[in-house]
Amino acid sequence: MLDLAKIAKNLLFIDIETVSAHGSWDEVPTRMQEFWSKKASYMQNPHQYDEGKLYFERAGIYAEFGKVVAIGLGFFHWDDDNQLCFKVKTLTADSETELLSQFSSLIESKYKGNSLMLCAHNGKEFDYPYLCRRMLVNGVNIPKSLQLAGKKPWEIPHLDTLELWKFGDKKNYTSLDLLAAIFNIPSSKVELSGDLVNHTYYVEKDLPKIARYCQEDVVVLAQLYLKFHNLPLVPEDNIERI
Q: Predicted 3'-5' exonuclease PolB-like domain: which residues (predicted)?
């Protein structure tokens, strides 16, 4: 069985929420419109959206055309009665440079060297590379834990619950919400779902709602990690949202 106490101090669960870099097609610079149009021509488009609508609906998932607006962070700890607890918070900012700088500084100050182990769902395909790409775009230093250049696969301390669930299967994507349902973990999709984040940010202008959604995704992620190791869930009373 996993010795959770041994690794918990260096284990950090993360989730990011992203939106299109601009709130409307008219705001997108002409040069970037041309690149988006080229990319959009290869996308499946069953609803026959025009390129502007397609940009609003999908640009946020591509680091070249989107930006990060929320980063959820969570970690395990034990209380005075030796009960497993979980603490989670979300960093948010309309300024992506400010948000990524805050995240990078926090990671570097709290976790020295290469000791940090990150865990995300589909993190190796999405969260980790997206963060690194946007840090480069914004001129933010990439933390050591996200620097992969020159490292061998077994030297990269990144966990991915999607990869763990695949057991080597390369074919299928399984959502965090589906896995939560399978393992009877409360869903994070009570107030919001991923396909509505762009609308929530640009139309509703409700970043706090996105922050709460991101925070709950991190809670689900951590609970799923426990289930993957046949460990009991953290009781709701032991989860601290800050």
A: 65-230
Q: Which two tokens stand for residue 128?
A: 């980790």
Q: Which fold would CATH assign to domain 4-21+65-241? A: Nucleotidyltransferase; domain 5 (3.30.420)
| pLDDT tens-digit map of 166-208 | 998 887 899 999 999 999 999 878 788 888 999 999 999 999 9
Give me the residue spans of the domains in the chain: 4-21+65-241
76 within 8 A of 11, measured Cβ to Cβ: yes
